[in-house]
Amino acid sequence: MSDEPDKTTLRTLARERRRAFLSSLDPLAHRLAFKAIPSPLARRLDGMHSIALYMGLDDEAPAQRLAPQLQAMGKTIALPRVIDRLGSMDFLAWSPEDQLFPGLYNTHHPEPSGPPVTPDVIIAPLLGFDRAMNRLGQGGGYYDRAFARYPDALRIGLAWSVQEHDALLADPWDLPLHIILTEVELIEGPDA
Which pTM value belongs to this model? Predict the structure, then answer.
């Protein structure tokens, strides 16, 4: 029997660690975090048109803060829409001035007025990550399925630096991230 904590325990510990970190973070540092796209990442996004963000919930790293700069770069921004409780979601075009509508699991999404967007880049929330580019998510499999559905999309995890782990267990269906962006560092994997 392994002494490694299971994913449920890891998720609980990761949420507690993130909450403690954010409660001690300087308010100005918090407000400024994720407001700018680092130059190496901006260059990597050159030639990519559609970027899927998410609206940060609770203490998640706030991906929506990247929207103004992505818009200024001429990118189409999309947000996820959770379709059902079986792990299905798609991405809908969005601008920061657009109204959001309530969805499943306290999520909010744009009005589904057009067809779903096929993202060139998927920026995903996470509870934990490691330097092998593994991602610990909430456990519903939504992003795992989205990564599999859009295998050519650049997979970027957005996280607070405190969410790093020495090593995370990866299940066979887990696809590694290409890039991880924290408030202090841009980490590029070997496949970035």
Answer: 0.92
67: nearest Cα among 40, 29, 94: 94
The secondary structure element, H or E, covering residue 161 is: none
What distance in Å separates the CA atoms of residue 189 and residue 161, rounded to the nearest whole number? Answer: 16
What is the token pair recorded at 25? 């973070």
At residue 172, the 3 state secondary structure works out as coil
Number of Cβ within a 10 Å radius of residue 128: 23
pLDDT at 58 over 90: no
What are the angstrom distances between the C-alpha of 89 and each of 45, 78, 115? 23, 12, 13
- For residue 123, give the H/E element and its range: strand 121-124
pLDDT in tens, 135-182: 998 878 899 999 999 999 999 999 999 999 999 988 888 899 999 999
